Amino acid sequence: MKKKFTHGLGSILSRSIALLVALAFMNSYVVAQTQPCTNSVTLWQEDFGTGNDTTSHPDALFSYEPTGPLFAEGSYRVASNLQQKIEWHNSPDHTGNTDGRMLVVNGDFGDFFMHTITSQNAFSSGAYYFRFYIINANVPYACFGNPLLASVNLYAEYLDGNNNWVAMQNSPNVGSPVPTSNNPLWIQQGGTFILPPNVVTNNIRIRLSDATSGGCGNDFAVDDFGLFYCPDGGPLPVNFLDISAMQKSAGILVQWKTAFELNNKYFNIEKSTDGVNWTVIGRVESQGNSQFVQTYQFYDRSPVAGNNIYRVRQYDIDNRSTLSRITSVKVTINGTSATVVNNPFINHINIDFLSKNSMPVEVALYDMAGKQVAIEKWNVVSGSSRMTFTKAANAGRGMYIMTIKGANNEVIFNGKVVKQ
User: Fold this and answer.
1) In angstroms, rounded to a whole number, what is the distance separating the alpha carbons of residues 93 and 79?
2) Of 35, 111, 221, 354, whose CA is between 20 and 30 Å from 367?
3) pLDDT surpassing 90 at residue 24
4) pTM surpassing 0.90?
């Protein structure tokens, strides 16, 4: 059975014992979720429980429709399947538990969810991060291919001494339109809010508001809410999902994915052969801000024989950084391999070699009729190296065959290249 947790935590030091007790009882969902900031403290989470029937929810503000297709604008139900209208996606909730529930909404303009977190001790000033997951119920061809897209704004407020709700700094967080997709797609959204210094409050309130009016489309579900206190200031600028490296021809392709990016500026790719000493070998620009899974890659054209260890360091606009885990590839050089770097090419062709020994090579360019257009002879050194074929500069535009031969006319490379 899923559980809902409410933790009123003000002074982190004085409440540490209570926090440890609470963490001991959190289920697998809570443990599995990546924490959004260093040393984060979970104040509240909601995943809507489990069950194969529909139900209402005390924090939902739209009209509860218990049965039948969810036709009415501004209505909701808590259900284990998104397909509350026949044309919606057939999708389980985000959490992934058996019969896990979510809040399914036929949207309309206005607040549709509100929850207050209460603490016996005053909340600490500083950064609070709220996140949730949202999915568009419609496929792209719904509403004759032009469905309304929900945009959910997030408000964070505190109760002052005069019993008034006051917006925290950075509130509201304006949500992006939730796109349709051919297959069900859950998207993480959220924002960081600041409780100012010298504010004394025992109550923080979270409101979700649909910024799109009712009509064809504007149908969605939300799940896995979480409010976190970030004592070290704000969420991590990037949540790394994965990093991998694999040998590809004469080099190594490093790939990594991010789950979300907040004020991200760029990535540095760092390399080591011993896991202790690291060198920056490249830079990749980032998306900046993203709530979708993003995939990046970098090609290391100069691997070494033995261990090639990689990690990616992200920098945000405030020069804070997040470091990925490491990945490695052990390169064993048995012969000679070659990779054409720039294909199509304009004038020159760069070729990367990975060779066990120093050796002479012959590089020839042929047109599609088999006539030799240009030829160059080089001495390739052992290890990794890059050579440049310059005699293609006078060739006309079109497709050619490049052949690279080593000792005893052994073919190292034979493939098509295109001059632009």
Assistant:
1) 9
2) 354
3) no
4) no
